[in-house]
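If your schedule permits, I should be very grateful for your opinion on a structural question. I have a record of one protein: its chain in single-letter code and its fold written as C-alpha cells. Would you kindly read the sequence against the C-alpha cells and tell me how you understand this chain to fold? Thank you for your consideration; the sequence and its C-alpha cells are set out here.


***
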Amino acid sequence: MPLILITGSGRRIGKGLAIEFARKGWDVIFHYNKTQQGVEDARKFIEKNFTSKTYQFSLDLRQIQDISKTFEKAFKEFGVPDVLVNNAGIFPDKKEVGEIDEQLWDETLAINLKSYFFVSKIFSEYAKIGARIINIGSLGGIETWKGRVPYNISKAGVIQLTKSLAKELAPKIAVNCVSPGTILIPDEPNQIDSPLIPLTRIPMQRYGTIFDVFDAVYFFATCSNFITGQVIFVDGGYHLDRGL
C-alpha cells in the first residue's frame, strides 16, 4: 500500500484528506498538535470502514528544533511516506496593521510557511525517488484580504516555496501546491465558513467541499512526476478574474 503523511490532519481539510486517501486504499500517517481527539475519531472511522493502516504522532510545528528528530523517529517507526502533504496551518482573527504584534506575525509564518520548508527538508532526506510533496496553499496567497496581512504573506510564501522546492528537489521529488478557495465543512465550521467570497463572484456558483480539494491533491499524488512546480486553485473559477 502507498503511504501518505498529512500534517495537521486532526481537523477540517487535513482530516478529510486522510479519510479520503484511506478510502482509496492508502495507509495514512496522521500528524497533529492539539487535535488528538480528531485524529482518534478519524482513525476509528478508517479502521471500521477500510483496510488501510493508520498511524499518528504529535508535534508543535513551531518548535523547529524538534522537527528533525520527531519526523525521523516517525519514519523509522511507520515507514517513509511516498507522499508528504504540508497542510497544517492557522487562520488568525482579523487584525489592523497597528494591532499586529511580533507574536502573531511569528506564529503565523512559523506554522503556515516555515514549518513547510523544514518538514519538506527532512522528508527529502529520507524520501525515495519518485516521492511527492504537496503543499496546501490558499487563495489568500494571491489575494490581499483586508486585515489578513500575516496570513496573506504566509500563503504567498507557500506558493513561491513550492516553485523553489520543485526546482531544488528535482528530479528526485515532484513538488506541487493546491490552493483552495472557500471550502465548507459542515461538521467543523469556523470563521472561514463566513465566506470571504460571495457566490456571485464564483463562476461555478457554489463553495467547495473536501472532495474538491481531495481530487486535486490525489491528482498530484498519483500523476506523472513530470508535473512539478504547479499550483491548482480549487475555487470554482474565482481566480479567473485575476487573469491567472
Remarks:
- The helical segments are 12-23, 36-49, 64-78, 102-126, 149-169, 210-222.
- The CA atoms of residues 135 and 177 lie 5 Å apart.
- The chain has one domain: 3-242.
- The longest strand covers residues 173-180.
